[in-house]
Structure formats: structure tokens, C-alpha cells
């Protein structure tokens, strides 16, 4: 199975045959979810045998099931145990309502710049904002508290139940280490080195973890960016340093199947438009299996900045930047050529620009 394989769904069903060696973790996602930028992955293991799935739309993701081999059954039991213990976290099934409130709150806030003739309407809207804010904050607090409890439970599970399930959990923690406490990240590194590496030395998941650990000691925040040359959609070779010299820049490495990458890039567009004439630029790199595929997704996304193309990891750029799973990452580079942040939000990038360009 390649980095991204497309499996057609016919009359609500699909089938696919794949190699069972080495046994490791794979993920299923719906293509329309990826393109919308909202993706949660249904993880499974390619053990020999038949694996069956019950898959639901994004809003009912927590009801997804996998079954049919011992490791997949064990993983499903692990998720069920999670859900049975953390009823509060399971209440994230309220996520559609959470997202609706968030979007509505944002819409109301954006509409408070009406003319004086609409003052009364604005006052009514402000009352709704206050009500929505209370509801939104309540759900947010509920989610954050539950997440902290869940992270502790997961950490204990990984340490006391060494298996591919635990290894599957370590990888995304290290990939998204900026979202975890430093002490927790260091604890996962310790568990990997002491427990998991000896057991799963040759597993592809371990190879990805080793790449992350190597890059944590290399290209990271506070280190210079790594220069490269790649073609644009017209085949013209573009060198990164020529484009970002003496500018604040975002290096946006993304792939069409990475929903979070698509979402982050789309959120960056308004920031780019506001600051593109003030010493700020964005250079995107799209990793795809072919130039034709890259041109298609680049045309669809309509990014207003230069986008370069890397086909089949031809210059190992993802590994150079410590992205072993071929998803993507955003790097904020200062005028000094130093990486100042990895995977900052659009809001954090704009705050940095305000401070640096004033």
C-alpha cells in the first residue's frame, strides 16, 4: 500500500487486498473529508486475515469499528475501554454542535461592523454572542479537562501494554509534540527507547519515529531552514532562498490527502493577502505521486502564493524537515533565516508579523 491509495466505495461497500508483511498501522479516511480539511483517521493493522469495518460520516466518527484479526480486535477493545472510562471525552460526539457554535460565534463577531442604522440589531447580536460564548466556553473547558485525563490514561496504557497499539500511539505524539507538555513528550521518548525500540526495531513505524528523533536534534526551532530547489507547476526550477531572502516566510509542506494541511493552508490565505506587500511571503510544496496529480490539486486549492512540486519524495524534503509520515507541516522563518515556529496557527503567524513588521 503506497503513501496514499484510493479505494472506491460501491453501494456502501469496499474491498481491498494488501500485503501483510510487515504488520504495521494504516489509516482509512474519506476523500471528501480530506478535501474539506476535516479528517480523523480510522487506524487498523494489516494482520493476515480479513478485516471488516463499519465506517460513519465525520460527525459520527466515534462509532467507527474495525474487527476480524486479533490485533484489530485488541485495538477496538482499547478504544472501547477509552470510551467507557472517559464518558466526558466521549461527549465529544457533541463536536458538531461545538463546531456550529464556533462558526456562528465567529460570524456574529465579523458582523459587528455595521453602520449606525443597524445599532439595535448589533446590540441584539451582541446578546447572542454573550450567550454563545458561554455555551462555547463550557464545551471547550469540558473537552480540555477530559483531554488531560485521557492523555494520562493513554500514557499509562502505552507503558504497561507494549504492542503495536502503543507504538501507533507514540508516533503521532512525537509528530505533534508542540501540542503536548515537554515532560510528556520526553516520557514517550523514554518509553520508545527503553521498551518499544528493542521490540519493534524493524517496523516501519519505528523507522518514522527514528526520523523524528533525529530531526529533533537537527532542523528545529532556533535552527536555520534548509534550502532546496524544486519545479513549479510550469516546470521552472525555483530555489527557496531566492524567494524568501530578507523576508519573513512560511514554508508550507503539504499533501492532498492530509486534511489538517489543507485546512492550515486555507486559513493562511487571509494572512498572506494582508501582509504580502509588507515583507512576508509563503512558499508551498505539494508532495504527490505525479506531476498531473499535483497540478490538479494545486488548481483546486487556489493558493495565491508560489507552490512547488515534489514527486515521490525525489529530494527527500519531507525527511529533511522531519516529516516522516508524508503529511505536512508549516515552518515560520524569520528574516534571519531561522525557524521560529513549527506548525503555528494562522493567528500565531499574524501575531508574529504584527510584532516583527511594526
What does this 3D model show about the protein?
It is built from 13 helices and eleven strands. The protein has 358 residues and is an alpha+beta fold. Among the domains are: 25-85, no CATH class; 229-357, Glutaredoxin, CATH 3.40.30.10.
List the helices and strands and how they pair.
Layout: E1 25-28, H1 31-36, E2 42-45, E3 52-54, E4 65-67, H2 70-85, H3 87-90, H4 95-110, H5 119-160, H6 164-175, H7 182-199, H8 204-216, E5 229-231, E6 237-239, H9 240-244, E7 248-255, H10 259-275, E8 280-288, H11 291-301, E9 306-311, H12 317-320, E10 329-333, E11 339-342, H13 346-357
Helix pairs in contact: 4-5, 5-6, 6-7, 6-8, 10-13
List descriptors.
13 helices; 358 residues; 11 strands; 15% strand; alpha+beta
Q: What best-fitting shape do the alpha-carbon axes yield?
A: globular
Strand-pairing-aware structural class? alpha+beta
Unreliable runs: 114-118
- Total number of helices: 13
Query: What's the name of the CATH homologous superfamily of the domain at 229-357?
Result: Glutaredoxin
Largest β sheet strand count, sense and barrel closure:
5 strands, mixed
> What portion of the residues fall into strands of 2 or more residues?
5-15%
The termini sit apart by 49 Å
CATH topology of the domain at 229-357: Glutaredoxin
